[in-house]
Amino acid sequence: MIPSAFDYVKATTVDEAVAALVAAGEDAKILGGGQSLLPVLRLRLNAPSTIVDISNVAEIRTITDEGSSLLIGAGVTTDEVANNALVKAHAPLLSMTAETVADRAIRHRGTFGGSCAHADPAGDLPTAAAALDCEFVIAGPGGRRTVSAADFFVDFFTTAVGPDEVLVAVRVPKTDGWGAHYEKFNRTAQAWAIVGVAALVKVDGGVITDARVALTNMGPKPIRATSVEAALKGQPATADAIKAAAASAADGTKPTSDVHADAEFRSHLARVLTGRAVATAAGV
Amino acid sequence: MTHISATVDGTHRQGEVEPRLLLVHWLRENLGLVGTPIGCDTSNCGACTVLVNGKSVKSCNVLAVQIDGAEVTTIQGLASEDEWHPVQKAFKECHGLQCGFCTPGMIMASVDLLTENPNPTEEEIRDGLHGNLCRCTGYHNIVKAVSHAAAEMSGS
Questions:
Q1: Predicted ipTM > 0.90
Q2: Is the confidence at residue B156, as pLDDT, over 70?
Q3: pLDDT over threshold 90, residue A1
Q4: Number of CB pairs < 8 Å for A and B?
Q5: Which CATH number fits domain B86-154: 1.10.10.10, 1.50.10.20, 1.10.150.120, 2.40.30.10?
Q6: HSE-up of A253 (CA within 13 Å, CB side)?
Q7: Is residue A279 predicted with pLDDT exceeding 80?
Q8: CA-to-CA distance for A78 and A91, rounded, in angstroms?
């Protein structure tokens, strides 16, 4: 399978990339690692007139310690996110989620920023970003702006990034002292998540003092299970209390039915996996 | 057309390519390196795995223009002049193949895995190779081959 012909622009700075997008119009696509874009191009699900390659933009390839947060360039690979010492130490939810993405070869080229900007509802990294309350730094013709995770993910494959904008970096607040776990259910090793759950839990003296839970593939975008988060606060960190709180994990979600699972099964998975993710994060 | 140059299996290669040309097509059709097969063409099976700057990639899922300036190693660049790579030898000795179609990708993915983890457990081998599909062997002898290669390479 061969992609449709396109014009290719290799940008070396963020400004160059934005200028190329402005010049190309709405029909342009950004190429980062290309691990989501290439299948789309080969299957001709999309045939952009121009591809703007940002993989050589040095600014987006770094991870910076900002004190209370890490600034992860949009072009940092999934493999780097999984193995980077800073990420492992201060945002272990992100590194452990990255480890579950696809396979080694895909992780070597696919990027954290690209996964978020692609916004596949079955993507794992967007869910971790939602649980971590990440901020997204977006550059456009008018300069740069920062968007919260709650506002960044808009719909199926749709984010706050406009057609003439580039995702530059993701700011990941440090979660030192929180327990973390990502629990994913899929049918084969490298398949997309049928459902996934990212959990962050703070436990003090055997009591859950704070919790964040986000769901993969339970709707068109990552969903925070706010009722579970509220139910967990103040509960003892025990298997029974966590299971009871997880019972509301599917409330307010809109899972799809497809060949892999119907909506009812997805809802069941959300409850079960939430229980497991929270329990593991809480060390229960 | 876009000009690219890269070191492929130790040899400097360059040429004008259409931006839409896939790396695997550049290797096979422009450079004649047909040791790298096209399996699924959907980035699932891993048969087309090569190393780019030492790390495994699925060459059907990368544009040739993306490897401009990089160092690419295919299955044809693994052996030295007179000796197979230990992973190649191990696949032969452990019969880590039947039809052989997935073998170039399996070997390249194994080389990549052993670079990062020279002494993997069986579980780590299975996890490390889960992006490479084999429809013949049931993976048993492939896992054995990687273990065998790891032992050979570490001298134990």
A1: yes
A2: no
A3: no
A4: 81
A5: 1.10.150.120
A6: 33
A7: yes
A8: 14
